[in-house]
Amino acid sequence: MTSTEQPFPAGIPTDVPTPARMYDYGLGGKDNYAIDRQAALAGLADFPEILDIARENRLFLYRAVRWLSRDAGIRQFLDMGSGLPAQQNVHQVAQQFRPDARVVYVDNDPIVLAHGRALLADGGQTTVIMADMTDPRHVLAHPDVRRLFDFDQPVAALFLSVGHSITDDAVMHAMLSEVADALVAGSFIALSQIVGVDQATADEHNEVARRVGLPWKNRTAEKVSELLSGLEPVPPGLVDVVNWRPDPNQPPLRPVDKPLRPFLGAAASNKRLYEFGGIMRKP
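^ that's the sequence the OP posted. Answer follows.
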C-alpha cells in the first residue's frame, strides 16, 4: 500500500483485483489498492478505451437515475452490484429530484459493505446490504429491502456495468427475469454492460480480463438485448450509453490518477468495446 492507503478492512481479499475497486480507480476514487491499479493498467494496454467506457457508464448512471426519479416518478431504487461509493451516487441523484426516494445498495464485495455502510447508509431512506445479485429471491426478501420498499409500488432495479461479471448466460437471464417478474407493472430495469463490436472482440477482451484475474464475459449488443425480451425500451432504447439522452451540462467526474491520463479520450479512435445499455419498462 502507499502512504495514502488505508488498512484493509477484515475479510477483504488483497491478493486479487476486484471490479469494484478497479472501477473506483477509473472514476478518480481512492478506495483501491496497488493490485487493482496494476490490473487496470494491464487491461488498458490492450483495450485503451476501457477507461472512457467506465467513466461514460458513471455519467449514464446520473442521467438514468435522474430520468427515473424526475420524469418517471420512481421513488424506490434497487442498485444491484452497486460497487464502491463514488460521486453522484444513486441516492444523491434520486433524492435531489424526489426527496422521499428510498435506495438499497446491493453488493457481495466486503469492501463495498465496509465503505458503503460508513458513507451511504443513513438508517432512514438509504441502506447497503451484502448479498449476491444473482440470487434475487434472497435480495428481495432481505429485511432491509422489505423495510424500505413497498412492492405494490413501482421499483427501478439497476444493473449498471455488472452483467459482464456474470459469466453464465443462464444465470444472468434468470437474475433479470426473476427481478422483472417480482416487480409490479410500471417498474423499470436499467442495465448496462460492456460489449464487443463482434463476438471475436468480446472473446479477446474476456481473455485479457481473465489474465488479470477477473471473472468476465463481454457479450455482443444483440445477446444483451435478448436477455431483456418482454420489456419495453424507454427511448432511445438500448444503445451505446454515450448516446442515451446525452447532457453536456451534467455534473462532471473527478479527474483521474496521473498514470491513467494518457488513456482519456482513447475511445474516440479505439471503439472495439463500448458500454451498451438503457432503461426498460415492465408493461
